[in-house]
Design a protein that fits this description.
Strand order of the largest sheet: 3-4-5-2-6-1-7-8-9-16
Function: Zinc chaperone that directly transfers zinc cofactor to target proteins, thereby activating them. Zinc is transferred from the CXCC motif in the GTPase domain to the zinc binding site in target proteins in a process requiring GTP hydrolysis.
Pfam families: cobW, CobW_C
Structural class: alpha/beta
InterPro entries: CobW-like_C, CobW/HypB/UreG_nucleotide-bd, P-loop_NTPase, Zinc-reg_GTPase_activator
CATH architecture of the largest domain: 3-Layer(aba) Sandwich
Strand content: 25-35%
Organism: Verminephrobacter aporrectodeae subsp. tuberculatae
Number of domains: 2
Shape: globular
Protein name: GTP-binding protein
Order of helices and strands: EHEHEEEHEHEHHEHEHEHEEEEHEE
Number of strands: 16
CATH topology of the largest domain: Rossmann fold
Low-confidence stretches: 210-233, 323-337
Helix content: 25-40%
């Protein structure tokens, strides 16, 4: 891979049987809106893709009308990655793997990241809020559940409508004890905002940074039809900046190794030398800094996302500095955890 070529973000969706992985995938595919997603699954039958999305089906591949595809993994996950990246003329915007209910999603992420064309978009693990404590108490299941929770960059407490306030508080506390550094998001029907799965978008030009992966810049009072909820500012906040100074790569790595609490996602394209650029990505627990080609517009950019009221604006301003601007925006579904 050449320095200027774009790495495709890889997202792994894990969770025990019945946690809501397939429901989440269907939501993401339904909300793709022009984003080309390649989904790798173990079994088409379990995925149950909405029939009106299916354009054609051939062997182990289903082509969807929105430009996305779903492919069965087969016996060799590494070969599945190679095949899906090489077999389509137009590049994908994201690659997503639905892990089996008993697998370790971090192991799958490591296999995918052996391909230099992929970068880590994050590992999302869903748990059934009504079943988690029982699973952890079962000696036959506890190890699987622990491995999945410790693999996660984001833990989704799904089906929170199926438990009362006391039980939900116990689930939150147990998850926090087992994975204290991992952000939690609570929802029903696995309705996770796509921005938490794919990360924010960066624009190339010198103007405002566009956020939440949308085609517009949000403010606390925006009523863009994509959001579908006039109260969306109550869920997420964005922070963005166009810093013009040089950054020290070693210092960026040190900062990313222990980022401030409250940060869910961060993506940045920064100058790390007179003629050198680097891409910084952070998702939940994992960060990466890689050399990158200069952006087309020649302007650096930083976008950060956190839950409303928890995004560490001061720490972000201290790290990335000038021309910082704050915007609040959410996605249409889910509740802050």
């Amino acid at each position: 891979m050449t320095l200027g070529s774009r790495r495709i973000p890889l997202t792994v969706i894990g969770g025990f049987l019945g946690a809501g992985k397939t429901t989440l995938l269907n939501h993401w595919l339904r909300a793709a809106r022009g984003e080309r997603i390649a989904v790798l699954v173990n079994d088409f039958g379990a995925l149950n893709i909405d029939t009106d999305l299916i354009e054609s089906r051939s062997g182990d591949t289903i082509a969807l009308s929105n430009g996305c595809v779903c492919c069965q993994i087969g016996d060799d996950l590494s070969r599945a990655f190679i095949d899906v990246l090489a077999s389509h003329a137009a590049p994908f915007d994201a690659v997503v793997v639905e892990a089996s209910g008993v697998s370790d999603p971090w192991r799958i992420a490591q296999i995918g990241l052996a391909d230099p064309g992929l970068s880590l978009g994050g590992v999302t693990v869903l748990v059934d809020a009504a079943a988690l404590l029982g699973h952890l108490a079962d000696p036959l299941l506890a190890d699987t559940m622990l491995r999945q929770l410790k693999s996660a960059d984001l833990i989704v407490l799904n089906k929170v409508d199926a438990v009362d306030a006391g039980a939900l508080a116990r689930v939150r506390a147990r998850v926090s004890a087992l994975a204290p550094a991992t952000p939690q998001f609570e929802t029903v029907q696995a309705q996770v905002p796509p921005v938490l799965l794919r990360g924010p978008a960066l624009t190339a030009g010198p103007g405002p940074v566009e956020t939440l992966g949308s085609a517009h810049a949000c403010d606390p009072d925006c009523a863009h039809p994509d959001h579908g909820d006039p109260a969306h500012g109550s869920i997420f906040q964005n922070w963005s900046a166009r810093p013009s100074h040089l950054f020290d790569a070693a210092a960026l790595r040190q900062w990313a190794a222990a980022p401030p609490a409250g940060l869910l996602r961060l993506k940045a394209l920064l100058r790390t030398g007179e003629s050198e650029w680097s891409e910084l990505q952070f998702a939940g627990r994992h960060a990466s800094l890689r050399r990158s080609a200069a952006p087309a517009g020649g302007a650096a950019a930083v976008v950060a996302i956190g839950l409303h009221g928890r995004l560490p604006h001061g720490a972000l301003i201290a790290q990335f500095g000038e021309q910082a601007r704050r915007r609040a925006c959410d996605a249409p579904h889910g509740n802050a955890g």
